[in-house]
């Protein structure tokens, strides 16, 4: 396979008076055309910064990103705008939809910006909405779509100008497992059947296991790169360290969810939220906690108690 994206010794440092944070510390990896790769790591590990640099939204302090043999870190701002418009499709966790436009109109926007005629843009938008299962809802506003439908609309918009690269930043973070799997099936199909280079950042190991490889980030550095099928057993690539990293990460997420449940209960007792809101949010956290416990059990690392 041809390399779609080559990331080489990427460093990103944010500075301000009295402030310095190193978000990326010499990150290097390659993603091939027709491959889907996930990036996992706790909040603050550098996932979004990494995707923003690959997507031409931000520039690195050092290192390079090679796309199709071209070093985009040398691009001028006009070149980056063209790169973002035509070569990259970005899918955000919170959709970034224009609320006053219909699904069809939202999908047409990137094509019109790129200079396509309205008739051609409309025809392609209708085909894209059909492909993601929204053909019968093309005239609805985003507020009249479910969370899963809004994320599928975001995918259609990302594909509007037929980009070679798809970057998805926590695309399933606000979805239940059934809808998350549907979104991931679309992204996997884009890579495997249409030859797109796809990178997905995620907190969910069940989502990550649907990709070809998993890159684990911590404190801006890569702790391990491994294939999903090798997790939970001795693999040919020596993923023991990576598996330990994943177990530690899951344990941390479990503790975080438990803390959120305790905080939620405290808010109820202090009358800061209504009982209905408490039940709604508590059930989501309970579902999330159960999912993480199941993943930890699958790895054979023991299961934390719910209490």
How many domains? The number is: 2
**Shape label:** globular
Strand content: 15-25%
Give the CATH level 1 class of the largest domain: Alpha Beta
Number of beta-strand segments: 10
The CATH architecture of the largest domain can be named as 3-Layer(aba) Sandwich
Poorly predicted parts: 232-240
User: In what order do the strands lie side by side in the largest sheet?
Assistant: 6-7-8-3-9-10
Separation of the first and last Cα atoms = 48 Å
Main sheet attributes: strand count, strand direction, barrel closure = 6 strands, mixed
Q: What name goes with the CATH superfamily of the largest domain? A: P-loop containing nucleotide triphosphate hydrolases
Helical residue percent band: 40-55%
Q: What is the CATH third-level topology name of the largest domain?
A: Rossmann fold
Report the radius of gyration as a whole number of Å: 20 Å
Q: Tell me the number of helical segments per DSSP (H or I, 4 or more residues long).
A: 9
Word description of this protein:
This protein has 307 residues and is α/β, with parallel strands linked by helices. The chain folds into 2 domains: 3-230, Rossmann fold, CATH 3.40.50.300; 240-298. The chain contains 9 helices and 10 strands. Helix 6 links the parallel strand 7 (165-169) and strand 8. Helix 3 crosses helix 4 (118-131), helix 4 (118-131) crosses helix 5 (147-158) and helix 8 packs antiparallel against helix 9 (275-298).
């Amino acid at each position: 396979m041809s390399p779609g994206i080559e990331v080489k010794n990427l460093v990103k440092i944010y500075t301000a008076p009295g402030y310095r944070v190193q978000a990326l510390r010499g990150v290097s990896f390659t993603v091939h055309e027709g491959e889907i790769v996930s990036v996992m790591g706790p909040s603050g590990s550098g996932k979004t910064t990494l995707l923003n640099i690959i997507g031409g939204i931000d520039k690195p302090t050092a290192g390079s990103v090679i796309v199709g043999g071209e070093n985009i870190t040398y691009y001028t701002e006009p070149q980056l705008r063209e790169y973002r418009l035509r070569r990259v499709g970005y899918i955000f966790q919170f959709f970034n939809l224009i609320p006053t436009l219909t699904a069809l109109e939202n999908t047409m926007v990137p094509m019109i910006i790129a200079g396509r005629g309205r008739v051609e843009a409309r025809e392609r938008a209708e085909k894209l909405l059909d492909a993601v299962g929204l053909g019968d809802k093309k005239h609805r506003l985003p507020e009249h779509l479910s969370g899963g439908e809004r994320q599928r609309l975001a995918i259609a918009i990302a594909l509007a100008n037929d980009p070679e690269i798809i970057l998805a930043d926590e695309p399933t973070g606000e979805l239940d497992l059934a809808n998350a799997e549907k979104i991931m099936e679309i992204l996997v199909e884009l890579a495997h059947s249409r030859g797109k280079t796809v990178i997905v950042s995620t907190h969910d190991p069940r989502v990550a296991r649907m990709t070809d490889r998993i890159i684990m980030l911590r404190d801006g550095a890569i702790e391990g790169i491994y294939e999903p099928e090798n997790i939970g057993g001795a693999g040919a690539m020596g993923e023991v360290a990576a598996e330990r990293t994943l177990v530690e990460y899951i344990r941390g997420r479990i503790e975080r969810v438990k803390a959120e449940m305790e905080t939620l209960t405290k808010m109820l007792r202090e009358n800061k939220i209504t009982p209905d809101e408490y039940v709604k949010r508590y059930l989501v956290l309970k579902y999330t906690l159960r999912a993480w416990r199941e993943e930890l059990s699958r790895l054979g690392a023991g299961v934390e108690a719910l209490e």
